[in-house]
């Protein structure tokens, strides 16, 4: 088991290096750097002024060297002008003798956001905190609901309940978040449409709408009324997907030979499901559930933008739209880390849950 984990960690490290280098290369293409120079300097900068700005800020070296400096495995660039030495690791006003040689992401130096005018670590930590609460709420709603629907549907394949639940799962999976989000806002958070005007007319709600159409206030104080719609929008898609996977696994298990043997021995249907079928049926959905974390991290982009919730997805959109290179690189590191770690946990959990793989 230890050798398996070590091999997986080695593959993860190589994958992370390859993916982050690709993102670094794409974000540091000459057109992006020229746009960065003009946004930080002046939009009317001449070509020689742009080249001078890029040289002063360390954007003109070889790509591999700049990637190593950003990563923190190559000494940072330095530049001397008018007797003053500055560089990547030597901000203006700092003594070069006391400055470190390496100052990349491995040393905790993630750069400065040109959009938010703040250190990347500060902004990224704040946005990840907001997204973490959203992901936690989604998982608490999505996973139990999806497993319950999948198990109930797979227990009696072909029944009326199975057909109803399968239709619901397919419909939710086929509905993208930007559609379901708009529908939820129109139904529950509009003062002129949906059920809110009726509830307000009948005196059942104090305000004009049942739910809030924006989740901005949830960044300070999370309540059911300002957090329900974004959670429902994200969870709805995942519920259908996990439920379909659980149903397929449960259907396969219920037709196994040991299930028939248990029934012939006189075990009740409930005992067969709880003691024999359920654990084996949850092996495949476990992998799917773990893979929902990277999907949630990247899938919240639309929902956070729709509900103006300033989390990871909203930050990523702002960084991409404004050519914030350091923030884009930081977001890519977080996304790659989440994907690789959840895949490792999924593989280890699958080995523990499936005795055949563990014994092999």
Helices, by number, come to 16
Mean pLDDT over the full residue set: 85
Q: Using the alpha-carbon principal axes, give the shape.
A: flat
User: How is the biggest beta sheet arranged?
Assistant: 2 strands, antiparallel
Structural class: mainly alpha
Number of domains: 2
Task: Please mark out the parts with pLDDT under 50 across 5 or more consecutive residues, or reply none.
Answer: none
Percentage of helical residues? 55-70%
Number of DSSP E strands: 4
Compute the separation of the termini in Å: 11 Å
SSE string: HHHHEEEEHHHHHHHHHHHH
CATH class of the largest domain: Mainly Alpha
Percent in strands? under 5%
CATH topology of the largest domain: MetI-like fold
State the CATH superfamily name of the largest domain.
MetI-like
**What's the arrangement of strands in the largest beta sheet?**
1-2
CATH architecture of the largest domain, by name, is Orthogonal Bundle
Give the radius of gyration: 26 Å
């Amino acid at each position: 088991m230890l050798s398996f984990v070590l091999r997986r960690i080695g593959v993860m490290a190589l994958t992370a290096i390859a993916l982050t280098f690709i993102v670094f290369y794409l974000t540091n293409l000459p057109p992006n750097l020229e746009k960065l120079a003009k946004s930080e300097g002046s939009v009317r900068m001449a070509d020689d002024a742009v080249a001078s700005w890029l040289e002063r800020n360390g954007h003109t070296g070889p790509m591999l060297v700049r990637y190593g400096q950003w990563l923190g495995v190559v000494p940072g660039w330095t530049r001397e002008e008018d007797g003053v030495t500055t560089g990547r690791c030597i901000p203006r006003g700092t003594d070069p003798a006391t400055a470190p040689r390496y100052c990349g992401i491995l040393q905790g130096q993630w750069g400065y956001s040109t959009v938010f005018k703040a250190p990347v670590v500060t902004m990224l930590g704040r946005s990840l905190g907001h997204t973490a609460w959203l992901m936690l709420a989604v998982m608490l709603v999505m996973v139990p609901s999806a497993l319950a629907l999948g198990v109930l549907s797979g227990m009696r394949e072909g029944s009326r309940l199975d057909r109803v639940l399968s239709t619901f799962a397919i419909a939710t999976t086929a509905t993208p978040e930007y559609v379901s989000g708009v529908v939820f806002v129109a139904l529950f958070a509009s003062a002129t449409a949906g059920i809110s005007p009726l509830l307000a007319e009948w005196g059942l709600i104090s305000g004009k709408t049942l739910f809030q159409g924006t989740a901005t206030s949830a960044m300070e104080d999370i309540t059911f009324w300002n957090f329900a719609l974004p959670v429902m929008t994200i969870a709805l898609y995942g519920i259908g997907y996990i439920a379909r996977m659980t149903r397929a696994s449960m259907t396969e298990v219920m037709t196994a030979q040991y299930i028939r043997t248990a029934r012939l021995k006189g075990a009740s249907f409930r005992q067969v499901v709880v003691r024999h079928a359920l654990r084996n049926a949850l092996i495949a959905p476990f992998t799917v559930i773990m893979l929902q974390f990277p999907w949630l991290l990247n899938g919240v982009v639309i929902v956070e933008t729709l509900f103006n919730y300033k989390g990871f997805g909203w930050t990523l959109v702002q960084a991409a739209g404004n050519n914030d290179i350091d923030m884009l690189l930081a977001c890519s590191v977080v996304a790659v880390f989440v994907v690789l770690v959840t895949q490792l946990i999924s593989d280890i959990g699958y080995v523990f849950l499936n005795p055949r793989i563990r014994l092999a």
